[in-house]
Amino acid sequence: MTSVLYDVPGPRARRRNLIGTVVGGGALLGVAAWVVWNLYDRGIFEARRWEIFSDPDVWQFLWNGLRATLEAAALAAVLALILGFGLAVWRMAPQRWLQLPAVAVIELFRGLPVVLLMFFSALALGLSIFQAVVLGLVIYNAAIIGEILRAGIVSLPRGQSEAAYAIGMTHWQTLILILLPQAVRRMLPSLISQLVVLLKDTSLGFIVGYAELLRSVQNLRDFFGNAYLFPLFFVGAAIYIAVNFSISRLAVWLEQRGSMKAAGGVAPIETDVDGQLDPNIGRTHEGGRAP
Question: pTM for the full model?
Answer without folding.
Answer: 0.74
